[in-house]
């Protein structure tokens, strides 16, 4: 959202740039004197100077402040002038002069001195800009501006809102403007006005509104004995009611929040466990290298991003099939090279796959270094979907939920509808009988293992968006995957889905009160108790020979 | 009586022999006790290389006391008990004259008894939680009063923070630091309901709840700040989640104590711009010493992209001090060097002079930097003068009367100024 906003801001800045060629006036010379002070001003003295600059009528002001806020305002030591500078491909900086229009040649960083800002100055500039952008031609910019002002309304802001609200066309912006004015009315008005403001503010969700109401209630309780005046007690009642309503709404959305967190964590668990459930269910192989298959998928994403640096937006889409192929291929190799010689010896396969997992980790460490690799998030995966002021869903988690369900249902379809699925199910139910019916069980084993590993690779693509891509990525998820598989019932896809979502949600509802460490322990203890009662998990395999 | 004399005599002979042995040896041996494999390898390998660089430098200048320096590198593999074993190997078998090593507090605590038993000397280069003072260790990283306390002061006075979230990884450093910070905040009049404390396991990656809690906690209209003692890998998903949930540094700044240039290198820091870190050193500080140090580091390691960081400066200062102390004492004998160390001064890389105090802690400046888009920090605040490291926190009831002073007449790491006694005895 922020990025869209700055894009828009830049587009309107070009509009400002057009208006720039005004003749130098007296105010412009004053503007220039203020600008000249920027390079030598200390950080602690910056705030009043920025205020003074913002008060200038010059049309360059918003552009200047915007660049200052984004850390792109520099001082060119040699030419003694202020410039906007941006790093380019050749390790130098492209310059644009602040006051003059002629082009400047790129220079190295050593020729420049940055005009420094800090959080406070940036916050101050954001507020100042919000005031200026309230009357901007773009509705999105106006909306962002009024949202900024809602949290920190200034005196000039209130005056301009009072003026602008009459002509504002967008309903949402007008509403937010009225909220600012109502809060002002609540703070400064007479009792009757306060009551009117409260009744209009009721049902809003913005934390700012709640804070204003709470503040008012505190002021009221501190100032007077309520029984004396009826007005006051009425005000007290109205405030309490409005705050109570807001708290109720807040609790409701908090619940939704936790639910979303739980489902998103469940989806990650589902992605991690679903490949395991197939191999475990069909072949009875405890694959300790499953986590490393995920790691390979994550590294595939990294390699794809490195190979196509200009296609970051699409790299994840490319990575999904690529990761499936890479991890699936490695899976088939492991099955053909190691596991098939250990058929029916679960402990030996466990040890062998554990060894393979260590080898793969070390291999990745040697090839890619032990440091974590950075996988960039495409634009459509970052930020969050704002549903209302206190409830929003982060895009990356949202996509992962959808993605996990897609993977789940495609696997379900493969196992239910395809002939491969039929063979897989036959082998998992009764291997000898299947072989008697001329199903090549060893071929099915290899394909199943490849499929399970490939799905793990896909999970790795999703995980690369959430956590560190490093050699230890797999280890962090292998235990959770086994928990889900055992809890859900070995070999049952639906069991895996239900188990993953249950564990995820349980964890996320426990976490706020218990903390992440204790929540994990409680989930584990619960699981141990559950396994005691139902050793075969939620959805045990059915059938005569299923053990 | 006779027996005592015998011991005295034999110990004199033994010392004589030992000194003879050291003199007979061709090189002065410097032990390097840093993990080169395992989870800590990422950070600690850099420090091993720093020591090697310093040794190469010193040898190029003609060595020390007319002898060459020789590095003895061992790998305790991020395995805490192995730190004790490898430390013993360095002291008993390799007979090193000094050790540079350790990163995590638990590794330091594990090698400590060995150092005291065999009378070794170790330089510890990382910021830590304090509440410790050993005659055999020189602490060249920051104590809590050289990092945590000034950082909180900055948030309080310059940012105007009124509500506090203390987030940490679940182990000794964050827990002790947060205990000190909580006591400090309460003493400054912050109400208990305005402090939220939360611990997460190492490598925690699902930050949704916690970040949402921070957001709610910070939405009451009072300025809120996060003080983060989150360590290692967990930081990246944490900052990512902050960005995704729309918490910018202007709304709720995060002040980190364990995030430096090395941790940020190779990572897109654009969404992190403005978040803070408190250290005694930043690579971006322009001084002549620092420029020289960065240049020689890049040349030594053969990679222009490599960054420098605070524990490297601490290693640099520690090494320079040890060299000066050996020259002053004229020997590498541990007891002589230990006494010679106190009062030794070496220029900091960021300006000013680092002095080794009688409590085995340094005087250093405290800097606060904001993360920039290029992964470097820009200093936004610094202490006007250097701050003396305090081994025992003044804000915890158990340690507020304790001081450490390894010079006569006190000569003790935990001297109680009320009872005028060493608590350990």
What does this structure look like?
Chain A: Its main location: membrane. The complex is a heterodimer of chains A (547) and B (425). In chain A, 68% of the residues lie in helices and 5% in strands. With 547 residues, chain A is mainly alpha-helical. Chain A has three domains: 91 residues, no CATH class; 108 residues, Alpha Horseshoe (Serine Threonine Protein Phosphatase 5, Tetratricopeptide repeat); 216 residues, no CATH class. In chain A, helix 5 packs across helix 6 and helix 13 runs antiparallel to helix 18. In chain B, helix 3 runs parallel beside helix 4 and helix 11 crosses helix 12. Chain B is built from twelve helices and 19 strands. About 1% of the residues of chain B have low confidence. In chain B, helix 9 links the parallel strand 9 and strand 10. Chain B has a domain of 135 residues: Rossmann fold (3-Layer(aba) Sandwich). With 425 residues, chain B is of the alpha/beta class. Chain B has a seven-stranded mixed β-sheet, sandwiched between helices. In chain B, strands 2-1-3-4-5 form a five-stranded parallel β-sheet, sandwiched between helices. Classes of the chains: A mainly alpha (547), B alpha/beta (425). The interface between A and B is large, with 53 and 48 residues.
What's the helix-strand series of chain A? HHHHEEEEHHHHHHHHHHEEHHHHHHH
The first-level CATH class of the domain at 145-279 in chain B is given as Alpha Beta
The largest interface is: A-B, 53 and 48 residues
Q: How would you name the oligomeric state of the polypeptide chains in this document?
A: heterodimer
Number of helices of chain B: 12
Coarse shape of chain A = flat
CATH fold naming of the domain at 145-279 in chain B: Rossmann fold
